[in-house]
Amino acid sequence: MQQKEPNQKLRNKMEKNYNPEQKNMKTIKQQDMIVKSKSTETPIKKDDSKVEEKSEEKKIEEKEIKKDKKKIERIKKEEAVVNAKNLPISTKFSVSICKFIKGKEIERAIADLEDVLAKRKAVPMKGEYAHKKGKRMSGGKYPKNATEQFIKLVKSLGANSNYNGIENPIIVEAVANKASEPHGRFGRIRRKRTHVTLKAKEKLNKKENRK
Fold first, then answer.
1. Domains by residue range for the chain, with CATH
2. What are the strands of the beta sheet with 79-87, ordered from one edge?
3. Overall pTM surpassing 0.70 (yes/no)
Protein backbone atom coordinates (compact mmCIF):
# COMPACT_ATOMS: atom_id res chain seq x y z
CA MET A 1 0.00 0.00 0.00
CA GLN A 2 2.87 2.35 0.65
CA GLN A 3 4.09 1.96 -2.94
CA LYS A 4 0.69 2.65 -4.54
CA GLU A 5 0.08 5.95 -2.71
CA PRO A 6 2.82 8.00 -4.52
CA ASN A 7 1.71 6.62 -7.89
CA GLN A 8 -1.81 7.78 -7.25
CA LYS A 9 -0.57 11.26 -6.31
CA LEU A 10 1.33 11.55 -9.63
CA ARG A 11 -1.67 10.50 -11.59
CA ASN A 12 -3.83 13.09 -9.84
CA LYS A 13 -1.29 15.82 -10.68
CA MET A 14 -1.16 14.73 -14.34
CA GLU A 15 -4.92 14.80 -14.58
CA LYS A 16 -5.02 18.32 -13.13
CA ASN A 17 -2.31 19.63 -15.51
CA TYR A 18 -3.70 17.84 -18.61
CA ASN A 19 -4.84 20.26 -21.31
CA PRO A 20 -6.16 18.81 -24.65
CA GLU A 21 -5.66 22.15 -26.46
CA GLN A 22 -1.92 22.01 -25.83
CA LYS A 23 -1.80 18.56 -27.44
CA ASN A 24 -3.60 19.84 -30.51
CA MET A 25 -1.21 22.79 -30.80
CA LYS A 26 1.80 20.46 -30.66
CA THR A 27 0.41 18.28 -33.44
CA ILE A 28 -0.25 21.36 -35.61
CA LYS A 29 3.30 22.62 -35.09
CA GLN A 30 4.73 19.20 -35.97
CA GLN A 31 2.71 19.11 -39.20
CA ASP A 32 3.93 22.63 -40.14
CA MET A 33 7.54 21.60 -39.57
CA ILE A 34 7.11 18.50 -41.80
CA VAL A 35 5.60 20.58 -44.60
CA LYS A 36 8.44 23.13 -44.42
CA SER A 37 11.09 20.43 -44.47
CA LYS A 38 9.49 18.82 -47.55
CA SER A 39 9.28 22.15 -49.33
CA THR A 40 13.00 22.77 -48.72
CA GLU A 41 14.04 19.24 -49.69
CA THR A 42 12.15 19.08 -53.00
CA PRO A 43 14.43 20.72 -55.66
CA ILE A 44 13.06 22.80 -58.45
CA LYS A 45 12.54 20.58 -61.46
CA LYS A 46 14.17 21.75 -64.68
CA ASP A 47 13.01 20.94 -68.14
CA ASP A 48 14.89 17.76 -69.01
CA SER A 49 14.06 18.15 -72.68
CA LYS A 50 15.95 21.50 -72.92
CA VAL A 51 18.98 20.08 -71.14
CA GLU A 52 19.07 17.08 -73.47
CA GLU A 53 18.79 19.33 -76.53
CA LYS A 54 21.74 21.46 -75.36
CA SER A 55 23.88 18.38 -74.68
CA GLU A 56 23.08 16.96 -78.13
CA GLU A 57 23.99 20.27 -79.79
CA LYS A 58 27.34 20.30 -77.97
CA LYS A 59 28.09 16.75 -79.10
CA ILE A 60 27.27 17.61 -82.71
CA GLU A 61 29.55 20.66 -82.56
CA GLU A 62 32.42 18.57 -81.14
CA LYS A 63 32.01 15.99 -83.91
CA GLU A 64 32.07 18.70 -86.58
CA ILE A 65 35.26 20.17 -85.10
CA LYS A 66 36.94 16.75 -85.18
CA LYS A 67 35.90 16.21 -88.80
CA ASP A 68 37.28 19.62 -89.76
CA LYS A 69 40.62 18.74 -88.18
CA LYS A 70 40.77 15.46 -90.11
CA LYS A 71 39.86 17.20 -93.37
CA ILE A 72 42.94 19.42 -93.27
CA GLU A 73 44.55 19.13 -96.66
CA ARG A 74 47.80 17.18 -96.69
CA ILE A 75 50.71 18.80 -98.46
CA LYS A 76 51.50 16.74 -101.54
CA LYS A 77 55.18 15.76 -101.59
CA GLU A 78 57.18 15.09 -104.72
CA GLU A 79 59.07 12.08 -103.37
CA ALA A 80 58.89 9.25 -100.83
CA VAL A 81 61.94 7.98 -98.93
CA VAL A 82 62.76 4.88 -96.90
CA ASN A 83 65.90 4.71 -94.75
CA ALA A 84 66.96 1.39 -93.22
CA LYS A 85 70.01 1.14 -91.00
CA ASN A 86 72.07 -1.80 -89.78
CA LEU A 87 70.26 -4.47 -91.78
CA PRO A 88 71.76 -7.95 -91.23
CA ILE A 89 72.51 -8.55 -94.95
CA SER A 90 75.54 -8.58 -97.20
CA THR A 91 76.56 -5.23 -98.64
CA LYS A 92 77.73 -6.85 -101.89
CA PHE A 93 74.36 -8.52 -102.49
CA SER A 94 72.43 -5.38 -101.51
CA VAL A 95 74.40 -3.27 -104.02
CA SER A 96 73.54 -5.66 -106.84
CA ILE A 97 69.85 -5.74 -105.77
CA CYS A 98 69.76 -1.93 -105.77
CA LYS A 99 70.96 -1.95 -109.39
CA PHE A 100 68.38 -4.64 -110.17
CA ILE A 101 65.52 -2.53 -108.68
CA LYS A 102 66.48 0.98 -109.79
CA GLY A 103 64.30 2.52 -112.52
CA LYS A 104 61.39 0.11 -111.97
CA GLU A 105 57.87 0.69 -110.73
CA ILE A 106 57.16 -0.51 -107.21
CA GLU A 107 54.76 -3.28 -108.20
CA ARG A 108 57.14 -4.59 -110.84
CA ALA A 109 60.08 -4.45 -108.42
CA ILE A 110 58.16 -6.49 -105.82
CA ALA A 111 57.18 -9.05 -108.46
CA ASP A 112 60.80 -9.40 -109.64
CA LEU A 113 62.06 -9.85 -106.07
CA GLU A 114 59.46 -12.53 -105.44
CA ASP A 115 60.66 -14.28 -108.62
CA VAL A 116 64.17 -14.19 -107.18
CA LEU A 117 62.94 -15.93 -104.02
CA ALA A 118 61.22 -18.55 -106.16
CA LYS A 119 64.45 -18.91 -108.23
CA ARG A 120 62.69 -18.01 -111.46
CA LYS A 121 64.89 -14.95 -111.99
CA ALA A 122 68.47 -14.29 -110.89
CA VAL A 123 70.01 -11.05 -109.69
CA PRO A 124 72.88 -10.06 -112.02
CA MET A 125 76.20 -9.83 -110.17
CA LYS A 126 79.76 -9.06 -111.18
CA GLY A 127 82.47 -11.46 -110.20
CA GLU A 128 83.12 -15.17 -110.30
CA TYR A 129 79.53 -16.38 -110.21
CA ALA A 130 77.86 -19.11 -112.19
CA HIS A 131 76.28 -18.14 -115.49
CA LYS A 132 72.53 -17.48 -115.44
CA LYS A 133 69.95 -17.00 -118.17
CA GLY A 134 68.78 -13.45 -118.75
CA LYS A 135 69.26 -10.32 -120.82
CA ARG A 136 72.68 -8.71 -120.44
CA MET A 137 73.62 -11.06 -117.61
CA SER A 138 76.67 -13.26 -117.45
CA GLY A 139 76.63 -14.30 -113.80
CA GLY A 140 74.03 -14.07 -111.08
CA LYS A 141 72.72 -15.44 -107.81
CA TYR A 142 69.55 -15.88 -105.69
CA PRO A 143 70.28 -14.06 -102.38
CA LYS A 144 67.46 -15.09 -100.05
CA ASN A 145 67.98 -12.96 -96.92
CA ALA A 146 68.71 -9.77 -98.82
CA THR A 147 65.70 -10.16 -101.13
CA GLU A 148 63.36 -10.71 -98.16
CA GLN A 149 64.59 -7.49 -96.54
CA PHE A 150 64.29 -5.57 -99.80
CA ILE A 151 60.70 -6.75 -100.35
CA LYS A 152 59.76 -5.24 -96.98
CA LEU A 153 61.54 -1.98 -97.82
CA VAL A 154 59.92 -1.66 -101.26
CA LYS A 155 56.45 -2.30 -99.78
CA SER A 156 57.00 0.39 -97.16
CA LEU A 157 58.19 2.72 -99.94
CA GLY A 158 54.93 2.10 -101.80
CA ALA A 159 52.92 2.87 -98.67
CA ASN A 160 54.85 6.12 -98.13
CA SER A 161 54.33 7.16 -101.74
CA ASN A 162 50.58 6.56 -101.47
CA TYR A 163 50.47 8.62 -98.28
CA ASN A 164 52.35 11.46 -99.97
CA GLY A 165 49.93 11.43 -102.91
CA ILE A 166 52.23 9.92 -105.56
CA GLU A 167 50.03 8.02 -108.00
CA ASN A 168 52.58 6.25 -110.23
CA PRO A 169 55.75 5.89 -108.12
CA ILE A 170 59.00 4.77 -109.66
CA ILE A 171 62.24 3.94 -107.83
CA VAL A 172 64.61 6.76 -108.69
CA GLU A 173 67.37 6.12 -106.17
CA ALA A 174 68.57 2.92 -104.49
CA VAL A 175 71.80 3.04 -102.50
CA ALA A 176 73.47 0.50 -100.20
CA ASN A 177 76.37 1.43 -97.92
CA LYS A 178 78.48 -0.61 -95.58
CA ALA A 179 77.70 -0.18 -91.87
CA SER A 180 79.83 -0.88 -88.81
CA GLU A 181 80.32 -4.62 -88.34
CA PRO A 182 79.84 -5.74 -84.73
CA HIS A 183 81.89 -8.57 -83.28
CA GLY A 184 80.35 -11.96 -82.78
CA ARG A 185 81.00 -14.41 -79.97
CA PHE A 186 84.57 -14.25 -78.58
CA GLY A 187 85.41 -11.58 -81.19
CA ARG A 188 86.27 -14.11 -83.91
CA ILE A 189 83.40 -13.28 -86.31
CA ARG A 190 82.35 -9.91 -87.69
CA ARG A 191 78.60 -9.62 -88.39
CA LYS A 192 77.46 -8.12 -91.71
CA ARG A 193 75.50 -4.87 -91.52
CA THR A 194 74.26 -2.56 -94.30
CA HIS A 195 72.52 0.80 -94.61
CA VAL A 196 69.93 1.06 -97.41
CA THR A 197 68.09 4.12 -98.75
CA LEU A 198 65.31 3.99 -101.33
CA LYS A 199 63.65 6.95 -103.00
CA ALA A 200 60.57 7.08 -105.26
CA LYS A 201 59.07 9.82 -107.42
CA GLU A 202 56.14 10.33 -109.76
CA LYS A 203 56.56 8.61 -113.11
CA LEU A 204 56.62 11.23 -115.87
CA ASN A 205 55.07 10.67 -119.31
CA LYS A 206 57.17 10.91 -122.46
CA LYS A 207 55.40 14.13 -123.48
CA GLU A 208 56.34 15.78 -120.18
CA ASN A 209 59.94 14.65 -120.52
CA ARG A 210 60.17 16.19 -124.02
CA LYS A 211 58.91 19.52 -122.68
1. 79-210 (3.90.470.10)
2. 79-87, 194-202, 169-178
3. no
